[in-house]
Write a structure and sequence with these properties.
The chain is built from 23 helices and 4 strands.
C-alpha cells in the first residue's frame, strides 16, 4: 500500500474515532451557535457607522473572519488531545513498533486535526447560505464570493492551529494545562500582529499581508478603501461586535475581496508555517519512548507506590490510612458517619497542592504580599489578576480527579460521599483562592471597603464553582483552563462590566450576579454528579 493511502486511512480512522465522541457533538453545537449568533446579529462586523448588505460577498467575508479568528482559538482546545489519546490507549506503542516515521505520524495528526476543524467550517458555510436565503433583498447566491473567503482565509489559519496543537503535545512542558494557557497568549500575539496595521492606520503593504494570520487586515483594509471612495467623510475603523444586536446606521454594498498574488502568497506562507511546525513537532516527538523525552534528564520525582491489596490488609489501620492519603486519589470518607468535614477539606487541599515545587509557593507568597502591600487600586486591578491566574492549573483538577484515576467506584461507594466529597473539593478550591489572593481581602477589610470585600469574596467562591461544574460535567481539566483564561482576559483584565467576575473596578463589579452564578454552578455540579451516580 502506498504511503499516501496509508496516510489517508490513518487520518480517516482518527477522524471517525473523534466523530463518535460526545465532545465532537458539542463542537458542532458550538459551530451551530456561532452561525445563529451571526444570524441574530449577536456577532456582527461594522466599519464605523457602516455595516454591509447581507449579500454573498459580505456574508462570505464575515463568516471567513469569524472562522479564522474564533475557531483558531477554540479549535485548539477541541483538537489538542490526539497524541495523548494514543498514549492512554496504548495505540502509540503499537504504532512505534511499525516502520512509520515520526514526520509521517505528526503529519497524519495535523491533517486529522484539520479535518475536525474543517467540519466546523462546513457548518458555518451552511449557516452563511441559510442567512442569505432568509434575508430578503440580498440578491442571488454567488457561491464563489460566499465560499472563497471562508475556505481560503479560515483554512490557512486553522492549519496553523492544527499544527500548534500537535507541536504542543510533543513538548512535555506544554502537553497539559500550561500549554492550554500559553496558547491563548500566543493566539493573542498572532492576532495583534494581524490587526496592528489597522490600529496604527498605516497603509497596507505586502509585508502586512504576509503577517496577517487570520486575514482580518486584508479584508478590512479593502472594505475601508471601498468605503473611503463611497464616503470621503469615513475616518476608518472596523471591528467585531459580540453580544449586541446594535448595527450601524448606514449600509454599503461590499463587492467582495479583490484577489491578487500577494493575498494568495500570504495564505501559502501560513500553510508553509503549518508545515514547518509539523516538521518541528516531528523532530521533538519522542515516538512514545520515555527515554527520548526532552525532560527525561531532569530529576524525577519519587513516586508513591501503593502496596498490594493483600499487603494492605496486613498493615495496621493507621498505616493503611497513611498509604491511602499518599496516593493521587480523592480521599475516601471513613465508614463512620461522624467524619469531620474539615478533615476532608484539608485532605482535598493537600491533593490540590501535591507535587508543587518550592518556587510555586514562593511566587504565591509574593503575590499574597503584593496584594497586601501594593496601593489598593493597583492591588485590586493588577496584582490580584496574577494572583488568581497563578493557581488556575490547580483549580482545573476540581471534579476531574475521580475520572482521571478511575476511582469513581471506590470514592462514591463510601458512606455520605455525596455531596460531602464534592462540597469539600469546592471548599478546598475556595481556601486556595484565599491563600493566593487573601492579601487583597485583608487590605479591603482594613480599608473598610465592604462593597469591594463582598466582590472579592464572591470571586473566591465563583472561580472554584466554575472549575467544579466544568470538571464534573466534562471530566476533563481542559474546558476550565480554556474558559477561565479567555474569561479572565476579556473580563477582569479589560474591566468589562458583567464579565469582570473579580470586580477590579467598582464600575465593573457585579458581585450579586456572580454569587447567584456560583450557587447555580454548584447546583449543576451536584445534580450532574447525582445523575451520573444514579445512572451508574
Amino acid at each position: 500500500m502506498s504511503r499516501s493511502r496509508v496516510l489517508f486511512h490513518m487520518v480517516r480512522a482518527d477522524f471517525l474515532e473523534r466523530v463518535r465522541r460526545y465532545s465532537f457533538v458539542l463542537t458542532l453545537g458550538f459551530s451551530v451557535y456561532l452561525g445563529y449568533a451571526m444570524y441574530s446579529g449577536q456577532i456582527n462586523m461594522q466599519l464605523g457607522s457602516y455595516h454591509g448588505v447581507a449579500n454573498s460577498a459580505w456574508l462570505g467575508s464575515v463568516v471567513g473572519l469569524v472562522s479564522a479568528v474564533f475557531l483558531s482559538l477554540i479549535g485548539f482546545y477541541v483538537v489538542k488531545n490526539t497524541i495523548q489519546r494514543d498514549r492512554e490507549t496504548r495505540v502509540g506503542q503499537i504504532l512505534a513498533a511499525t516502520p512509520m516515521s515520526r514526520s509521517f505520524y505528526t503529519l497524519s495528526k495535523v491533517l486529522s486535526n484539520l479535518a475536525v476543524l474543517s467540519a466546523m467550517i462546513m457548518i458555518l458555510s451552511a449557516a452563511a447560505i441559510v442567512i442569505q436565503l432568509t434575508h430578503k433583498g440580498t440578491g442571488r447566491i454567488n457561491l464563489f464570493d460566499l465560499l472563497s473567503p471562508i475556505l481560503i482565509f479560515s483554512l490557512g489559519a486553522l492549519s496553523v492551529t492544527a499544527a500548534f496543537a500537535v507541536l504542543f503535545e510533543t513538548i512535555p512542558g506544554l502537553r497539559g494545562g500550561v500549554g492550554n494557557i500559553a496558547y491563548f497568549f500566543l493566539w493573542c500575539f498572532l492576532l495583534n500582529l494581524s490587526v496592528k496595521p489597522l490600529l496604527t492606520g498605516k497603509s497596507l503593504s505586502d509585508l502586512t499581508s504576509m503577517r496577517d494570520y487570520t486575514g482580518i487586515t486584508t479584508i478590512s483594509g479593502q472594505m475601508q478603501a471601498q468605503l473611503r471612495q463611497l464616503d470621503p467623510e469615513y475616518k476608518g475603523g472596523s471591528g467585531f461586535y459580540i453580544g449586541s444586536s446594535k448595527r450601524g446606521t448606514k449600509t454599503f454594498v461590499w463587492t467582495g475581496v479583490k484577489w491578487n498574488p500577494t493575498i494568495v502568497l500570504s495564505r501559502i506562507f501560513w500553510l508553509g508555517v503549518a508545515v514547518c511546525l509539523t516538521l518541528i513537532a516531528a523532530g521533538i516527538f519522542d515516538r512514545f519512548d520515555p527515554a527520548r523525552e526532552i525532560l527525561s534528564l531532569k530529576r524525577r520525582k519519587k513516586q508513591t507506590v501503593l502496596p498490594k491489596p493483600e499487603e494492605l490488609e496486613r498493615l495496621p489501620l493507621q498505616t493503611r490510612e497513611t498509604q491511602l492519603h499518599a496516593s493521587d486519589l480523592t480521599p475516601l470518607a471513613h465508614s463512620r458517619s461522624h467524619v469531620r468535614f474539615v478533615a476532608l477539606v484539608l485532605s482535598e487541599l493537600r491533593l490540590l497542592l501535591r507535587g508543587q515545587q518550592w518556587w510555586w509557593y514562593t511566587v504565591a507568597a509574593g503575590l499574597f504580599a503584593g496584594c497586601l502591600f501594593a496601593p489598593l487600586d493597583s492591588a485590586r486591578s493588577g496584582v490580584i489578576l496574577v494572583a488568581w491566574l497563578w493557581p488556575a492549573l490547580l483549580w482545573s483538577q476540581l471534579g476531574t480527579r475521580e475520572a482521571r484515576f478511575s476511582t469513581q467506584a471506590i470514592i462514591f461507594s463510601a458512606p455520605h460521599a455525596f455531596p460531602r466529597q464534592l462540597l469539600s473539593s469546592w471548599t478546598a478550591g475556595v481556601v486556595l483562592a484565599l491563600l493566593t489572593g487573601g492579601g487583597l481581602g485583608l487590605r479591603l477589610m482594613l480599608a473598610r471597603d465592604t462593597e469591594g470585600l463582598f466582590g472579592w469574596a464572591v470571586a473566591a467562591f465563583f472561580i472554584p464553582a466554575l472549575a467544579m461544574a466544568l470538571g464534573v460535567c466534562t471530566e476533563s481539566r481542559k474546558p476550565f483552563e480554556a474558559v477561565y483564561t479567555v474569561w479572565w482576559y476579556i473580563g477582569p483584565l479589560h474591566q468589562m462590566r458583567k464579565l469582570d467576575f473579580i470586580g477590579t473596578k467598582p464600575a465593573s463589579s457585579t458581585p450579586v450576579l456572580y454569587l447567584a452564578a456560583s450557587i447555580a454552578l454548584l447546583l449543576v455540579a451536584c445534580f450532574w454528579r447525582k445523575a451520573r451516580l444514579s445512572y451508574a
